Amino acid sequence: MRKGKSRTGLVWGWIALVVLATVGVLAFVDSAAAAPNLGRGAVFVMTNDPAGNSILAFRRNPNGKLIGAGSVSTGGLGNGTMPDSLQSQGSLVRSGNFLFAVNAGSNEISVLSIGKKNLTLVDTVPSGGEVPTSLAVLDDLLYVVNAGSGDITGFRIGSGGQLTDLAGSTRPISGGPSTPMEGASQVSFTPDGEALLVTVKMPSVIDVFRVRDDGLTDGPFTAPSSGGGPFGFAFDRRGHLIVAETNGGPPNEGSASSYAVAADGTPTVISGKVGSGQIATCWVVIAGRFVYTTNTVSGTISSYRVESDGRLALQQSVAATTGGNPIDMALSSGDEFLYTIVDGTGRISIYGVEDDGRLTSIRGGVNVPPFSQGIVTFF
Q1: pLDDT tens readout for residues 177-192
Q2: CATH number assigned to the domain comprising residue 244
Q3: Looking at the domain assignment, is residue 117 inside a domain?
Q4: Which residue in 8, 36, 108, 206 has a CA-CA distance of 20 to 30 Å to 219?
């Protein structure tokens, strides 16, 4: 987090939010050699373009501002034909020096290698199902949730990043095949790697898959969500699970809940359905004891405080106003800066994270193509 004195600064389907503003989009060079100085700090964004998915690279300055540094094709297709087409958190993830991206339009997963000066496509493989929307990585194991076919599938990651499908790993999720609007929102390993959790918007549950020594899973074992429409989630440094809940998107009914997670992955509610006072609370990131959620329809970011015992309390209903519809977020190393994709305006907005949890808007956000989704940081 930033030191010193603080400065003042979905509804599923997004009914009535289909009209997009015309935006200026930066020109990116489609070249693996067009990403200089990535080792000094970078931010990566997935375009989710149905005509050809790509990863945009940005170099991060010490003040948090971004400079466009090129793009690399994933070798697959996105499904970005409307705002938030993926309806998920974790569509682009990083593990070590590798990026993993979903290609929801071509039912594939891509792997890219992050070098000091290069971002290079390593592999593109079938996802094992239809409409992949979220990814989870732990050591040499990757799992994808395929919302369209209503299942999860596993892969082994080779030393060079290549993916090999894990035979017999496909398991159904609650709710079965569905559109991203109604189906799974996120898949992620628990901190100890003993289980996979999947949030499913309809029927508002958290699926638990127990991970075996061979990488295969047992399940799902289903736990009810405290709030309706569980969406993105994250774990705090003590292993508490924090889940954002859209609750169907009615006015001011967004919320977040905290859970204790047992050794077998079973979540037990600590603080249930703590209201954000905003609409469509969807994405979550955690910076120390502070939790931030994007409220997509409200066009705001809320902040919560999580105590050492996992109790969750709303800190600021409106910690930031984004000027559009915020979706995915990512924190820089050290939790100094918060980056969010603002759909509808085609921008990444930047905020400084102060010691007291307040967000300070930083001028100098950058344009991204419409329907971009998935954002991660490096160093």
Answers
A1: 999 989 999 999 999 9
A2: 2.130.10.10
A3: yes
A4: 108
pLDDT band at 16 (very low <50, low <70, confident <90, very high): very low
Question: Which pairs count as long-range contacts for 130-133, CB under 8 Å and 24+ apart, including other chains?
Answer: 130/177, 131/79, 131/104, 131/107, 131/179, 131/180, 132/102, 132/103, 132/104, 132/107, 132/108, 133/86, 133/87, 133/88, 133/91, 133/102, 133/104, 133/180, 133/183, 133/184, 133/185
298 is written with which tokens?
């409200």
Dig out the tokens for 176 from the structure.
Answer: 């079965």
3-state DSSP: the chain helix, strand, coil percent, rounded to 5?
0, 50, 50
Q: Which residue range(s) make up the domain with 363?
A: 38-378
Q: Domain tally for the chain?
A: 1
Grouping H, G, I as helix, E, B as strand and the rest as coil, residue 182 is coil
Which DSSP string corresponds to 343-378?
A: ETTTEEEEEEEBTTS-EEEEEEEEE--TT---EEEE
Q: Given this model, what pLDDT does residue 3 score? A: 54
Q: What are the residues whose beta carbons fall under 8 Å from the beta carbon of 139, sequence distance 6 or more? A: 193
Two tokens at 369?
């193509």
Domain-located, residue 274 = yes
pLDDT digit string, tens, across residues 210-268: 999 999 999 999 999 999 999 999 999 999 999 999 998 678 899 999 999 999 999 99
- Residue 15 pLDDT > 50: no
d(CA 211, CA 269) in angstroms, rounded, equals 22
The 10s digit of each residue's pLDDT in 60-89 is: 999 999 999 999 999 999 999 888 899 999
In a domain? residue 28: no
* 265 neighbors 190 (Cβ within 8 angstroms): yes
Distance of CA 233 to the CA centre of its chain: 9
Contact call for residues 98 and 51 (beta carbons, < 8 A): no
Q: From CA 185, how far away is CA 281, in angstroms rounded?
A: 13
How many whole angstroms separate alpha carbon 220 and alpha carbon 170? 11
Residue 189 lies in a domain: yes
Query: Strands 230-235, 217-224: parallel, antiparallel or unpaired by DSSP?
Result: unpaired
Burial (CB count <10 Å: 0-12, 13-18, 19+), residue 363 = exposed
